[in-house]
Write a structure and sequence with these properties.
It is built from 14 helices and 30 strands. It folds into 2 domains: 322 residues, FAD/NAD(P)-binding domain (3-Layer(bba) Sandwich); 181 residues, 2-Layer Sandwich (Cholesterol Oxidase, domain 2). Strands 8, 19, 20, 21, 22, 25, 28 and 29 form an 8-stranded antiparallel beta sheet that branches. Strands 1, 2, 12, 13, 14, 15 and 30 form a 7-stranded mixed beta sheet that branches. A 4-stranded mixed beta sheet has the order 5-9-7-6. The model has no long low-confidence stretch (mean pLDDT 95). The protein is α+β, with helices and mostly antiparallel strands. The longest helix is centred in the C-terminal third of the chain and has 19 residues. A hairpin with a 2-residue loop joins strand 10 and strand 11. 26% of the residues lie in helices and 24% in strands.
C-alpha cells in the first residue's frame, strides 16, 4: 500500500530528527521519517558511558570500513555510524561543540548565502535548552538539553590546570565569545542520560498525528520522474514499499549515506553510475566528492593510581559497583563519557583561529578494532591531538547497485606539509601539558608512542601507523554555487525539483569542533527554510 505525505525524510540522525519534527510541529505538515535501524530502546544508548559499547555494536551501528589510506601505510579505518533512531547522536561521545563564528562566515564567503554566523546562531539557540541559562550565545526552552559534566573528577581538572601552566588560557565556554583556551566540555545530556536527537525531537506526543516514524525501513532509492523527486522506495521486514511526497523528499543519511542514496537513485556522476549498472536520472558530478574529516592520534600515559576508566574495564567488581551506583543514584563513572575536558589551540601563532583540539580522555587503548575496544591492562589516560582543518579531500561512492552494500569511503590525509606539521605540533603540545606540575602527581610514564619516539620523522611515522579519522565526516553533498556543488544555499539539489539534502554532508568545509551540534542546527535551519517556502 502506497501512502502519501507532505514530506519524506530519509534518515533519523541528528539532522533528520530535527527537520522532520520541526516540519510536523512548526509547519503542521504530514511527515514520514524513515530510519534503517531499530528504535532506540537499547539501554546502553542512554547511559553516557555506554557509548563504549554501542561504538562497536552492529545492532545499532553501521560499522563502516574505509578503503585503504595510502598516507597511513595502507591501513583501513573503522567508521562507526549510528544505525538507530537518533543516528550517530545515539552512539557518540555527547560533546557539544559548534565551531567558530568564522567557520560559518567562511561558508558565506564560499557562496552559501544565509549561512554566516549571524544567520546560524539563532538556529543553534532555537534548538538548545542550555542548563546555564540563556545569553547572547545560548538559548533555553529548546528540545536539546546541553549541560555541564555531572561528575567531579580530579584528573580532568588537573589536565586543565596543566594546560594553563603550559600557556593556554582558561575558557569556561567553548561555545561562547571565544573558542580558544582550555576547560571542561559541555554535553548533550540530561539527568545523567544521553540526550540524542531522537530523545530531543521525537518524544513530543503532539507530533503523533503529523509525524510517522518507520524504523527498520531502509531507503533504497529516491523516486525521480520528469526532473522531480516524487517519493521514496524503502525496504521493511515485510517487503519493499513506496511512499509519495506531495512536496519534497529530504535526504538526511549523513556524509556516507546521503551520497550513497543519491547515487543509487541515479543522481551523481553519470560515468560512475554507468560502471555500476545504475541508470542516470540526473548527472551531478559533485555527489560523493569533497569528503573530509578531522584527523587525530593519541598519546597515552600510565598513572600512579587507579583513577581511569581502564580500571573499570579491567575489573568485574568495579563494573558491578559502578552499575549499582548509576542505577541507584545516577552518578559515578557511568554518568559521563570520560571525554570531559580539552583545549582549543593554534598550531601556528600566525593563525587567526584554533586548528587543533586537544581532548583529554580518561582511558587508554592497547588496541581498537571494529568489534572490540581493548584497554591497557593498567590505569592510564590519553591526550588526543585533533587536527581540525586538514586539507585532504576524499570521496564516498557506491561499490555496486546493491543498496545494502556499504559504500567505498576513501579518505585523503596528510596531503600537505601543513597537515603533517599541525598534527606533529599537537603531539608535542600534549607532551608539554603532561609534563606540567599539575599532572605530574598522576603520570608515571608515556606508554604510547613512548618517549623514544622523538624526532619529527619518528612522530610522523607513528602517526602513519596509529592515527585515525575523528568520526566527523562531512562535505560529500557540498553546498554552494560552483560546478561541483550538490545543493544550493537552500539545500535544494541542483537541477532537480522536490529534493533536498540536509545533514553534515552539505558542509562545504568542516567546522573547528565536534559536528553533532552543527548537524542539529542544519536540521533546524532546513526546516525553517522549507516552512518559509511552502507556507
Amino acid at each position: 500500500m502506497t501512502e502519501t505525505f507532505d514530506f519524506i525524510v530519509t534518515g533519523a540522525g541528528s539532522t533528520g530528527c530535527a527537520v522532520a519534527a520541526r516540519l510536523a510541529e512548526l509547519g503542521g505538515y504530514s511527515v514520514l521519517l524513515l530510519e534503517a535501524g531499530p528504535k532506540d530502546n537499547y539501554p546502553w544508548i542512554h547511559v553516557p558511558l555506554g557509548f563504549t559499547r554501542v561504538f562497536v555494536d552492529e545492532r545499532v551501528n553501521w560499522k563502516f570500513q574505509s578503503e585503504p589510506v595510502e598516507a597511513l601505510n595502507g591501513r583501513t579505518l573503522y567508521q562507526p555510524r549510528g544505525k538507530v533512531l537518533g543516528g550517530t547522536s545515539s552512539i557518540n561521545g555527547t560533546v557539544y561543540m559548534r565551531g567558530t563564528p568564522t567557520d560559518y562566515d567562511h561558508w558565506r564567503q564560499l557562496g552559501c548565502d544565509g549561512w554566516g554566523w549571524e544567520s546560524v546562531l539563532p538556529m543553534f539557540k532555537r534548538g538548545q535548552n542550555q542548563t546555564r541559562g540563556a545569553d547572547d550565545f545560548h538559548g533555553t526552552g529548546g528540545p536539546l538539553t546541553v549541560s555541564d559534566i555531572p561528575t567531579e573528577w580530579a584528573l580532568p581538572a588537573a589536565f586543565i590546570d596543566a594546560a594553563v601552566q603550559a600557556g593556554i588560557p582558561r575558557n569556561v565556554d567553548f561555545n561562547g565569545a571565544v573558542q580558544e583556551g582550555t576547560g571542561f566540555y559541555q554535553f548533550t545530556a540530561t539527568r545523567h542520560q544521553r540526550m540524542s536527537a531522537a530523545k530531543a525531537y521525537l518524544r513530543n506526543g503532539q507530533l503523533r498525528d503529523k509525524l510517522k516514524i518507520e524504523t527498520n525501513a531502509h531507503a533504497l532509492r529516491v523516486l525521480v520522474s520528469d526532473g522531480r523527486a516524487t517519493g521514496v522506495e524503502y525496504a521493511t521486514p515485510d517487503g519493499v514499499r513506496q511512499a509519495i511526497a506531495k512536496y519534497e523528499v529530504i535526504v538526511s543519511g549523513g556524509a556516507f549515506g546521503s551520497p550513497q542514496l543519491l547515487e543509487l537513485s541515479g543522481i551523481g556522476d553519470g560515468e560512475l553510475l554507468q560502471q555500476h549498472g545504475v541508470t542516470t536520472k540526473h548527472h551531478l558530478p559533485g555527489v560523493g566528492r569533497n569528503l573530509h574529516d578531522h584527523f587525530n592520534t593519541y598519546i597515552s600515559f600510565r598513572t600512579t593510581q587507579p583513577i581511569t576508566l581502564n580500571d573499570l574495564a579491567n575489573s568485574a567488581i568495579r563494573r558491578v559497583i559502578a552499575g549499582i551506583q548509576y542505577v541507584a543514584t545516577k552518578s559515578g563513572p557511568l554518568s559521563n563519557t570520560g571525554v570531559c575536558a580539552g583545549a582549543m589551540v593554534r598550531s601556528d601563532g600566525r593563525l587567526e583561529q584554533p586548528d587543533l583540539q586537544i581532548n583529554m580522555l580518561a582511558w587508554s587503548t592497547a588496541e581498537r578494532r571494529a568489534d572490540e575496544i581493548i584497554p591497557h591492562p593498567f590505569s592510564a589516560f590519553s591526550l588526543s591531538p585533533v587536527h581540525l582543518r586538514p586539507e585532504g579531500r576524499g570521496s564516498v561512492h557506491i561499490k555496486s547497485a546493491d543498496p545494502r552494500a556499504h559504500p567505498a569511503i576513501q579518505f585523503e590525509f596528510l596531503v600537505s606539509d601543513y597537515d603533517k606539521q599541525a598534527i606533529i605540533t599537537g603531539m608535542r603540545l600534549c607532551r608539554k601539558i603532561a609534563a606540567q606540575p599539575a599532572l605530574q602527581p598522576y603520570v608515571v610514564e608515556e606508554v604510547m608512542p613512548g618517549a623514544a619516539v622523538e624526532s619529527d620523522a619518528e612522530l610522523l611515522e607513528d602517526i602513519r601507523e596509529r592515527a585515525i579519522a575523528n568520526y566527523h565526516p562531512v562535505g560529500t553533498c557540498a553546498m554552494g554555487t560552483h560546478p561541483m556543488a550538490v545543493v544550493d544555499p537552500r539545500l535544494r539539489v541542483h537541477g532537480l525539483n522536490g529534493l533536498r539534502v540536509a545533514d553534515a554532508s552539505i558542509m562545504p568545509q568542516i567546522i573547528a569542533g565536534n559536528t553533532n551540534a552543527p548537524s542539529i542546527m542544519i536540521g533546524e535551519k532546513a526546516a525553517a527554510m522549507i516552512i518559509d517556502e511552502h507556507r
